[in-house]
Every structure is written in C-alpha cells, then in structure tokens.
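Extended Data, panel c. Modelled sequence:
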Amino acid sequence: MSAGTDMNDFSMIGLFKMEAESQCAVLTAGLLELEDNPSAADRIEPLMRAAHSLKGAARIVQLDPVVKVAHAMEDCFVAAGEGKLVMAADHIDKLLECVDCFNQLSRCSENEIPAYLVENSEKMAELEKSFTDIKNGNFKSLPSVSISPAQTAIPALESETSPDKHAHSEKSFSDKEAIVRIAADKMNRLMGLAAESLVGVKRLQGFEKKILHHKKRLLEIATLIDQLEQEAVDSDQFADIKRILKDIQHKHNEYYRDYTEYFADFSDYSRTMDNFSDSLYREVVSCRMRPFIEGVIDFPRSVRDMARKLGKKISLKIDGESIAVDKDILDRLNAPLNHLVRNAVDHGIETPEERLKAGKNETGIVRLAARHRAGMLNISISDDGQGIDIEKIRAKAVSKGLASADIAVKLSEAELLEFMFLPGFSTAATVTEISGRGVGLDVVQTMAQEVRGVINVETELGKGTSFNLQVPVSLSVMSSLVTNIGGESYAFPLTRIDHLLKLSKGEIMTLESRQYVKYEGKNIGLVSAAQILGLKQEHTDSADIIHVVIISDRLNQYAIFVDSFTGEFELVVRPLDPRLGKVSDISSTSVLENGYPVLILDIDDIVRSIDNILNGGRLQGISNSAAAVPVSARKRVLVVDDSITVREVERNLLANNGYDVDVAVDGAEGWNAVRAGQYALVVTDVDMPRMNGIELVANIKKHERLHSIPVMIVSYKDREEDRLRGLEAGADYYLTKSSFHDNTLLEAVENLIGKSGE
C-alpha cells in the first residue's frame, strides 16, 4: 500500500481488497518466472513477502479462511527458499489456483465477501491441505476444483476492461511513486478544464500581437508629430501651434512610456500563463498515461494456462513494457490484444512434435511489442508458428459466396487477408473454447477503428504471422495539419498524411477526364476537398500554386487539393454531439488557438467518399486543367457492405450494366448516405458494425420520405428464418451472395427499378 494513498476514502475491507489485488499481481508474475526458472532462488523471497503481507492483511479484517490458506502458501515458499522443495509444474498450478481464488475475492463487494467465503469454504480447505502436502512432499496432482465465481469476476475476453481494474502492483512500476485513485469521469473533466485553459491562454498571444501592432502605430504617430513640428519651426506664425505640438508630444511620450511598461507586463504575464497552462495540461495528460504493461499484465498467465491445456510449449515475450499509453486507449486495447494473442496460441503455434518435425525449437514464441513511432503507438502481435494459408482463405471466400472463383483467383494476398476481418469468417477446421467463441477479427478491426487506428496482417506460410496495430498514443490530443477549405478550417491528422505538396497547375496531368499528380514515380488521383465535403471551392483560376495533401488507406492513395495550408497544431480532440450520429467525413472537433472551431477529418471516410465520387463519374477538377464531368442521369444504386471485396463485386456488376453506384462501409454510413442522396435502390448486407442491415432496412421503411425506396438484402445467411427476418423488416428482396455467380442479382435489380436506360 502506497503511503500516498488517500485511506479516508476506503473502509478496512476496501483496503484489504486493494492489498489483495496488488499482492496477487506480484504472486502471478513471480510464479510464472519461477516456473520458467525453478532454480532461481532469488524469485522465492518476493513470493514469501507477498503471501505474508496477504496473510497479515486478512488477519486485520478477520478473514480467517484467507489467513489459513495464505499461511500455508507462505510455508511452501519458505520450504522452497530453504531448498527443501523444488517447485514443479503441478505445484505452480495449485498455487496459481489459489491466486485466482484471492483475485476473485478482491473483486467482490464488501457485502459479497462473507457469502463468497462460505460458498468456497470447501475449496479453501482443499487448498490449505494441498499446500501442506506440497511442503511435506506428499502432494499428488489432482483435478482442480472449480471456484464459485464472484459476481464481479471478469471474463477471459470482454469488449472493455473495468474502469476500477488495478492490474499491477505499485512496486512493479515505481517503488517511490505514490498513487491516488481518481474516478475516470473526474479525470476526464479535469482534462477538459486543462485543455480549455491551454486554449484560453493561447488566445493571449493573439492579443499580444495586436498590442504590438498598436505600439508600431504609436511610433508612426510620433514620427508624424516630429515632421509637423519641424515644418512649424521655420515660421514664426505657428508659435501657438508649436506650443500645442509640444504638449501633444509630451503627452504622447508619457502615454508611450506607460504603454511600453503595460506591454512588458502583459508579455511577462502571457509567457508565465502560457508556461503554466502548458505545464498543467501536460501534467494532466501524463496522469492519464499508464505503462503499456498495465493493459497486458494478465497475458503471461493466460498464455501459460492455454499452452498447458493445448499441450503446447509457448513463451510470451513482451517488449515496450514501460511505453506510456492513454488509459482510455489501454482499456480498449485489452480485448483485441487478448483475442489476437489467444489466436496465436491456438491457431498459430504448432504442437512440440510438429515444430520439431519442421526443424523448429519445440517452444513457440509469441511476441507482443509496443513502441512509439511518428506520434502513434505501434503494437505487433507476432508468432513463429505455421502462418496463414492464403489458399485456404481464397477457397473459404468462394465457398461462402463472398467472391466467385474467377474473381478470387485474381485477388492479391493483401486483398485476401482482408476477408479475415469479416464477421464470422474463419479458416479454422474446428471451433474451440480458446479462440473460436463467436468473436472474430472483425471485433478487433472495429475497436481499432473506434480509436482512429488501423490494423494489417503479414504472414509467411511455415514461418509465422504478425498482426500490426497502429493507434494514437492518446485520444485527447492530436497533431494535425489545419487547412482552409471553402473558407472553413479543417484538420488532417498528421499520422494519416503521406505527403504535402505545393504544385503549379502545369504539373497537373489529365487522363480520361481525371486529374493526376506525379510523386515518387507514381500517378496519384487528384480530387477537390471542397467537392468531397460539399463546399464551394475558393480556388481561383488566377492562383498558380495548388496545395495538395496526399492520404491513403491500405489499398488506395489519393491527392486532395485544398485552398491553403494554415499550419501544424496540437489539437485537443472533442467528440461530436452524439445526437448527430456519424457525420460523413468528420471524426471529431477542436478549437484553434484563436478560439475558432475546427473540424477534424475522418481519413477513412474521406477515402470512401473519393471512391464514391470517382465511381459515380462526378469528379470535378481544377477549372483550367480539365472540364468537370457532368453528373450522370443514370439510375443510382447505393451498395452497403462492410467487406471491401463484396462491395467491389457488387459495384462492378451494377456499374457494368449501366447503373451509377455509390458505396457505404456499414449501416450507419449507409443511413447517412440514403438520407443525403437520391437513390433508386439500396442493396445491403446484414451483419455490419455500428448499424446492421436489418436496422438499416427498418429505418428506411419507417422514414416518411424514404419508405418508397426499394431495398434488397444480399447476405451469406441462407437460412429460411434469416430470409423471413429480412423481409419482415421491410426488404423487397432477399438474396444470398451466391447470386453473384449468375444473373439472379441483376434480374432482381431490373425487377425492382428496371434497366438503367429505362
């Protein structure tokens, strides 16, 4: 217990729970280290101290069953420390079982603890006897007795960790640092106030510049007075005027001295407040930052248990334990990282026999590495296992109707790996309780997108797989390039910008009515930012310089021209009002130093909007380089699907038959698009993040203006109950994705809205 902890906020039981949670973290880490190196005598003493401290804390609050078990555990460590006992794997299993028991006890409320102890009294007695047998050398491995879970027990994989979770002992991070627990909402409010203070003080710098400008004007007035006085000196007729000028000059000099002193004081105050607010803000931000290890402290134990259950030998290596990460990011990372590590253990690493046969060490390595790079947190989860068979993914995509055999054979490795992030997509032959529990990589991708991150996969058959996750270090602050678009300020996150260019109009090329810029040997499509955002382009024909921002996602790269670059700023990120829903192309908002608001762009949304513009033939170029392409009079169809492959198949199929096609990546984006555009038909998938297809259909059919738009569901779900569910929601057609292989989809479209030219 840290000396700096505010104990007045806790009862004695509450203090015991904190102590138990802390000591359990020490016991878990120490036991895993001891299992890897049983002869390391220096590992025993910290374990003895932890068990002794836990026993003492339990005695103070009169939890006698805990006292007895902790005492018996301590005796085991004493015997091991004296060389009378060598810890075997079965001993470690039983000791970790006891740690689990204490951990669950620490998560009970004060009212639940007595009931928990009664319910698990038999288990406590069995643990005490087992430790006595271990100490005396009489222990025989027995099946573990399950512990009755506390109501607050945390499952193996959850979408979000508990805000009260204190995952690691204070000693593990700093022996000197005092820790005080603060509620998350209070910390968020404090963060907001500190950010507002920072923005407010930055405005003083603007005032200082204005005051300095007035100082220059005063000097200009003084010069004019001197000139006027010099003119009057040559004539005796201006004696009265010269006297008045002397008075004016005297008062001006007095005012200028006072003004100069005021300006100096204001400048000192501005600098002092700037330093103060900046220090305050950085201190508050640092309070939100936690070591990366806090978010993954349970992983070594989890990997150890899974490996033993699967009969594998696996070592988890964690790099970058001390890397600082915003607690909000850290909490959200727990579930996706947990899932990726479990996948690596279950599907990636082979059995010892298979590894030896392949010429590998029988112990597989799973590596979890974190590092800061270019203002982002980069996390890789890699293994030296069997890798991912790309051909299995290709075959699975065809069998599930996600692509025809002709299309699938043309897909690149990167495009095929995208299928892995679809809901329900798996190449595993069997579903296991370790990693096949209905939670797929689509959840990992969704959580990455929620925190403005990206994920990609690299694999080599027989060598291993690496999942690379890139997320912001903090959700609170973002380094951004602020630009002017249509007379308004918009910010591009710096981490999503590939290049910035200033080009002359002569460097812009035109091919088939589309404009390009050449950079590093590549032709990159050029699009107007104002057209993407639905604004009036302020760029004039007389302007010779074009300001270009190059952005990309995993598959596409585009050049966006803006009116001008304002500058680089550290922006305090504020969420949009939730009542607005998902605003197309915008992720969040902020305030500039001058107090003016700025919208922060959603780069992934921007790329999708560019795809829609290009595929719809509605591209507008720079006026003197290419004529704008007129909007097509053909019938427009909106395709809504979270699979990029499926979207492209449907888009190409419809576009090749004369329809104008827009696309949306999920139900929420589709709902925004259908309300903003004019569509003859909506084609949607069912299983999508944020808003599924059934909800989208229901929203369209309930809308006063949109209810008459035909809606077609195209899904891989082919059960009769799924079809009825879609039709009951209001869908006009329900097709399976196997309809790509013949004319069923096109025939259904023609039945609903006719051919494109009709």
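The chain has 24 helices and 23 strands. This feature is highlighted in the accompanying rendering.
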